[in-house]
Amino acid sequence: MTLLQPALQTRSTWAPLLLRIPVGIIFMAHGAQKLFGWFGGHGLEGTGQWMSSIGLEPGVLMALAAGSAEFFGGLLLLIGLLTRPAALALAFTMVMAIVTVHVGNGLFMSNNGYEFGLALLAASVSLLVSGGGNLSLDRALYPAD
After folding, report:
1. Alpha-carbon distance 129 to 46, whole Å?
2. How far apart (Å, rounded) are the C-alpha atoms in residues 4 and 136?
3. Of all residues in the chain, what percent carry a pLDDT higher than 90?
4. I need a surface site. Which of 27, 98, 124, 140 has the fewest CB within 10 A?
5. How many CA atoms lie within 13 A of 20 on its CB side?
6. Quick one: which of 117, 129, 116 has its CA closest to 88?
7. What is the pTM of this model?
8. For residues 132 and 20, is the Cβ–Cβ distance under 8 A?
9. How far is CA 19 from CA 23, 84, 114, in A?
10. Coil, strand or helix at 61
């Protein structure tokens, strides 16, 4: 057994694939907003300034960390490589977003609440538990059954 085997091993099931694809795309898009300014985002500088304004310092470093977790973590989910570690990083990112930005606004997205972050947190935790499932690189490298 290698050091990575427990992190990569996953069962033959289709459910994780149904989460990995849309959630990976969503995370990548949000990360691209933060890192590159794509899809109407503000890029590292703008996102860093906003993060500084809400007390997350140093802002650019925080934007780089959040944007990288979202973009690269989303990419890893999409291809099903290192699904569990990526899901852990994304779950942590969502907890931070909920606690620092959204929780004071209540549940609903219409008030900038934590509804969307909570859904992404739940999907991330589900993938953390299940692994990548079928059609994942994790499964190709270390099948559990």
Report:
1. 35
2. 15
3. 88
4. 140
5. 28
6. 129
7. 0.93
8. yes
9. 6, 13, 20
10. helix
Residue among 53, 129, 125, 59 nearest 92 (CA)? 125
Torsion of CA 4, 7, 12, 18, to 10 degrees: -130
CA angle 31/38/92 to nearest 5° reads 10
How confident is the model over 76-103, as a mean pLDDT? Answer: 97
Report d(CA 74, CA 59) in Å as an integer.
22
Provide the token pair at 10: 């996953």
Sign of CA dihedral 52, 58, 63, 69: negative
Structure tokens at 63: 């934007």
Of 53, 76, 70, the C-alpha closest to 7 is 76
Q: Give the tens place of pLDDT for each residue, 113-137.
A: 999 999 999 999 999 999 999 999 9
Distance of CA 80 to the CA centre of its chain: 13
